[in-house]
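Entry
Fold in token form

___
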Amino acid sequence: MFFFLKKFIIFAPPLILNDGLITNYWNSQIVITGTSPSALNIISGSINGRVVRTIPANSTESFQFTDINTVLIPDGTQPTTVVSVSAVQGEQPPYVTQGQAINRYYYVWSSNSISGSLWLSYDESELNGISENDLTPYCWTPGATQWRAFGGVLNAADNYVAIGGAPVDNWSKWTLGSLSNPLPIQLANFSAFVSNESDVQLNWGTISETNNYGFYIQQRHSSSNEFVDVSNSFVQGHGTTLEPQDYSWTHTGVPVGIYYYRLKQVDLNGTIHFSDGREVTVLSPTSVGERQTPTAFNLAQNYPNPFNPSTQIQFTVDKAGYTTLTVFDVLGRQAEILFAGTAEPGKLYSANFDASHLTNGTYFYKLANGGQTSLKKMLLLK
């Protein structure tokens, strides 16, 4: 039995699917109004499209989405959260080549950050030549330029892979790919920081590489929206390798200012991918030998991000006064105070956040000075 839905459909619980396929197009969705796990009960069959559910605060029960084994099991730390899961069946995910991923991928979205176990199901007809024992989960998050591999536990008997500690935050794409024929370049880390007053050092590492010709460094000033290649910045890649690789490059003599750096990765066939940007505030000696930094209220993005277990946060202020830099979890609970005292304009402040005692998930850090505040988000992945 097959159903095709073209409208915004709201189901009062329970919705029980005993068999068949429900296909809802991208401009439609199935919304389950009940918050009980049993509000959607899939015994057999599947939904090819978007399912929206509300996960109660602190729940640790199993919530089905598009079939019996596409499941989210939260760890109980979340507030009440709306979660949307869209299954795209019969298609390879974007930015992969034949044989690198199964013919299915998922869009996952949530109104709040949730940590827990995410199960991704598959049909053996979708394996696309990949051995079941070779399946590994991959995630593509906002602003990313490559698929990132996650550890998972395969249940070949029931055709799903369980991902423990999977970050469900804003939106992301998920698929199951080949471990031995990995998806293109997987960055393990990327950081940029000031060294020797006016130099910017960039460090990055890859988990694996596929047909990687190399990297160019790109930069933009905070007053511009355009990234440009930095002269003579090419760094040779390692072609195809399953071994982790580390890279480093230094941009010397950078003028005072706030900048963003990113990597332009080029495949052997000329395909180009871009990394997320990294923000730095550059220092420079003045004519009298003093150090100078922009006199602006600015909170930089932490680096590295995601991080494990520590990361660095830099900030500047535009007026002297009592200043705090505080870390909170997703429930708004204070996790740590990184800075509390008088901060002065013209100085760059740097704080190290060690999260070795905290659990996986999204955290927020807030800078407050004289009535001004700035809030940014970071992700701890152990």
User: Anything to note?
Assistant: Residues 1-8, 285-292 have pLDDT under 50 and may be disordered.
